[in-house]
Amino acid sequence: MSATTTTTQLTKSSAGTPGAGPGSRPAGGVPAGEGRIGLRANLRHIGALVRRNALQIKQDPESMFDVVLMPIIFVLLFVYVFGGAIAGKGNNDDYVNYVVPGLMAMMGMNIAMAVGTGINDDFKKGVMDRFRTMPIARSSVLIAKIVVEVGRMLIASAILLGMGFLLGMEIKTSVLDLLAAVGLSMVFGASLMWIFILLGLAMKTAQAVQGMAMIVLMPLQFGSSIFAPPTSMPGWLETFTDYNPLSNLADAARAMINGTPVGDSVWMTLGWALLITAVTAPLAVAKFRRKT
Amino acid sequence: MTRSAHNAVEVRGLVKHYGETKALDGVDLDVREGTVLGVLGPNGAGKTTLVRCLSTLIVPDAGTATVAGHDVVRQPRQLRRTIGLTGQYASVDEKLSGWENLYMIGRLLDLSRKDARRRADEMLERFSLTEAAKRPVMNYSGGMRRRLDLAASMIGQPAVLYLDEPTTGLDPRTRNEVWDEVQRMVSEGVTVLLTTQYMEEAEQLASELTVIDRGKVIAQGKVDELKARVGGRTLKIRPVDPADLPAMSGALRESGLDGIAGSTVVPDEGVLYVPILSDEQLTAVVGLLGARGYGIAHIGTHLPSLDEVFLAITGEKTSVSGSASDALPEEVAA
Asked: Given CB atoms, is B199 within the 8 Å cutoff of chain A?
């Protein structure tokens, strides 16, 4: 073949071929000749991908161990091992009410972290190539993942609260307030997932993702009001915890369950969730699109 | 190569660099509608990069490519509606069953639940996977996975199908199964771009060939033409007396029996390689050497390996000036 053909000729000749080839397929919700994917089609795609993730869990029930065991271990560990030391011997009941709402925030973060390693693994498999060569919005693959992970978080929260009740936790407000607290931690957890998806896409191996995630996680988790009131910390650390989104979430959930003043903790948490999503979600989708 | 509105795939000057590595270094090719183009090249030649560019997985650095009239860079969404891709690694979900994989793909292609169900059943039947329909793919054999992968690519009835080394790592029997399936799809009008490392596979499936190496097209043409240039088969002749080798080669050249590429003497091995295109030519070569009184100790034939194809093409490029893809008949006439 000679290299003399110019691009203009090429585009002309190809424009002669109608957009829909012999294999054009029924495109529900997609106007003919338009590449954009409509909302209904998008929801259908997300649904099909959520089903995929759910079926994976069915095939591999061990992947639910973290969701089932983590909350049980967390509650036992913190209430019995640290509870006495932090709240004073015999005050375990008070500490349960203090720590369980906080643990809800911490668990969300741990589950969100697993999304990063999961997406990194997923990418090593050919099926991602198939999704990315199909006429679906590439974000739908990521959104489906988040939907399933939020479902896992809900299960973990239910087990966590169940454990809390077993150890003497009381709702001092109403069930609705409790549900609002759970909802808030879901919203925040979902926003965290975008960070870890971004990490999962950016880093080469799942181990690297895990290592990186731990570095981010540790200071946020322990430099927060989750386990102990920040008033016992040095001033600079207290300032850090005041702005730590995990503290905000823990404070909000605690206030909603214990009926203490909420302050600005709910707004701070929602603000963080919005900010994190607004920054990392577009970056993650862009990274996903460009990933080779 | 003829250029017409009936090219399903048109690639011009496609370039993709990874740092210093030029994975694609200005590739031009066409695939006519309803035909199979074989892209032949060794590992690292740029075959997979080419397929990934054409399936919108990566964006080329320069050049243009259109598939079914859609530009890979400017119209990726429309383009994705017309293609199917079966890669080197099965692009199906291992944890799902065969049926669940196909159903999911049907739904992602906007089929109704009912149609997606029907199509999944149909495809499993067609690719002889009905029995394994409910089993997780991780328990499938290599051949079954590849067949499921083909089925997955065919759910949306693509106009253009990319097969990236579809039989690499398969045993010969399974390979034949995959070939049969590909031939069937082509008979139904699908345009196929096939990459392969195997000359035999290209011969089986493709009508036209593009040979690439280090990101460049080094030869292009109909399979028969290329075979003529590199020798469809090679005759390996070991004379009783190695000293006869040059004279034998000369005799063949004089009588025009040594093919287009000419015979090759390898003194170290004490053999003469003669590219042949037909059984008649084989008979004629042996007859001629016998009539001239050269004693022959051993004769064998073999299909050229990819290495030999490369050797023939790159060797030829030094002697024949100009584009390597110039039409062949000219040279025959000369």
From this structure: no
pLDDT one-digit tens code per residue, B8-37: 999 999 999 988 888 999 999 999 999 999
Inter-CA distances, B141 with B94, B99, B154, Å: 12, 16, 20
The ipTM value here is: 0.77
**What is the b/e burial string over B145-179, where b = at least 16 CB atoms within 10 angstroms of the residue's CB?**
bbbbbbbbbbbbbbbbbbbbbbbbebeeebbebbb
B105 touches chain A (CB under 8 A): yes
Judged by phi (left if over 0) then psi (alpha if -120 to 50, else beta), residue B263 lies in beta
| Cα dihedral A238, A243, A249, A253 sign | positive
Write down the pLDDT at residue B66: 95
User: What are the CA-CA distances from residue A128 to residues A208, A288, B240 (Å)?
Assistant: 20, 10, 60
pLDDT at B253 over 80: yes
Using the predicted structure, report yes or no on whether residue A166 has a pLDDT greater than 70. Answer: yes
Strand partners, B36: B192
CA distance B303 to B180: 21
Mean pLDDT of A57-79: 88
Q: Phi then psi for B261, rounded to 5 degrees?
A: -75, -15
Chain A contact for B92, CB < 8 A? Answer: yes
Domain boundaries, chain B: 7-227, 231-333
Mutate to test the interface with A, among B85, B93, B149 (most CBs of A within 10 A): B93
CA distance B37 to B208: 5
Does the distance separating the beta carbons of A7 and B110 come in below 8 Å?
A: no
Return the CA Rg of chain B. Answer: 23
From B94, B110, B217, residue closest to A28, measured CB to CB: B110
Domain B231-333 = CATH 3.30.70.100: yes
Of the candidates B96, B109, B220, which has its C-beta nearest A25's C-beta? B109
Nearest CA in chain A to B106: A48
- Spell out which residues of chain A touch residue B158, defining contact as CB-CB under 8 Å: 23
Q: In whole angstroms, give the CA distance from residue A19 to residue B70.
A: 7
Q: Do A129 and B90 touch (CB under 8 A)?
A: no
Residue from B1, B82, B148 to probe the interface with A (highest A Cβ count within 10 Å): B82
Q: Does B23 touch chain A (CB under 8 A)?
A: no
The predicted model scores a pTM of 0.76
Q: Which residue of A1, A47, A60 is in closest CB contact with B95?
A: A60
How many of the other CB atoms lie within 10 Å of CB of A184? 23
- Residue A235 CB coordination number (10 Å): 7
> In this complex, do B64 and A10 lie within 8 Å of one another by their Cβ atoms?
yes
Taking each helix axis from N to C end, the angle separating B306-319 and B223-230, rounded to the nearest 10 degrees, works out to 80
Of A14, A126, A129, the CB nearest to B69: A14
For residue B70, pLDDT over 70 is answered with yes
Q: Which residue in A has a C-alpha nearest to residue B74's C-alpha? A: A35
**Cβ contacts of A18 within 8 Å, gap of 6 or more:** B69
Taken in order B41, B43, B48, B49, the sign of the CA dihedral is negative
> In terms of Cα–Cα distance, which of B330, B328, B320, B332 is closest to B224?
B328
The CATH class of the B7-227 domain is: alpha beta
- What is the rounded distance in angstroms from the CA atom of residue A287 to the CA atom of residue B108? 22
The yes-or-no answer to whether B7-227 and B231-333 have a common fold is no
